[in-house]
Amino acid sequence: MTPAIPAYLEQMYWWAYVRPWAVRLFDRQWMVELILLGNYGRLRNETLKEFGTDLSGRTLQVGSCYGDLTPCVADKVAVSGGTYDVIDILPVQLENLQHKIRPDAPVGTFLMDAAALQIPDASYDRVLVFLLLHEQPQEYRKRTLKEALRVLKPGGKLVIMDYGRPAWWHPVRYSTLLVYAWLKPYAVDVWNGELTELLAHEMSGREWSKTTYFGGLFQKLVSSG
């Protein structure tokens, strides 16, 4: 059965992700660089660096994303002889992704809800969540993280790249907060609490490292335990 599109996506983000014209407008490299204040390339490269050169085994990306991150990861997976699965709840996003990756890339695309993955436990060696969590309501965010941890193999690596709380002196701190409150209201929750505190039981037994970028406006969370 085809999963239903969450109501919040249609209500809050129809203009950014749901409509085909929105995908054509926003999935341009210069556009994602502009939206991320020139930081997309850096966040992509830091994500690739975190995975290293060996991407053998199985890799999962929870949520499609704009820009060339997924094709870059796919190239590294192909060299390593691994496989790479990408899930998204929006058919238009998966269709768009299929146009961005090479026909022979070891990439599978699956229509799935990030908060209710139809995937067995401990299936993947590594899981990537790239600029997704700040788009979700808090309860949905918790469920997405819980699912990402559930499908990760023991000892596997979870990499989360997302917005964070910028330092008090950051020149875009207050202007960004106003934009968040208007266009990305769920992102404000990411400012007000640590992502690792969302699931106290599931996350407490894992080792986490956190790296911030651009004065704290972006963060990378990595768990390898």
Automatic annotation (TrEMBL):
Organism: Candidatus Kaiserbacteria bacterium RIFCSPHIGHO2_01_FULL_54_36b
Keywords attached to this entry: Methyltransferase, S-adenosyl-L-methionine, Transferase
Methyltransferase type domain sequence ranges: 60-160
Keyword Acetylation among UniProt keywords: no
Molecular function terms, GO-annotated: S-adenosylmethionine-dependent methyltransferase activity
Source organism, top-level taxon: Bacteria
Official protein name in the record: Methyltransferase
One BP term from GO: methylation
Gene3D superfamilies tied to this protein: Vaccinia Virus protein VP39
InterPro entries (alphabetical): Methyltransf_11, SAM-dependent_MTases_sf, UbiE/COQ5_MeTrFase_CS
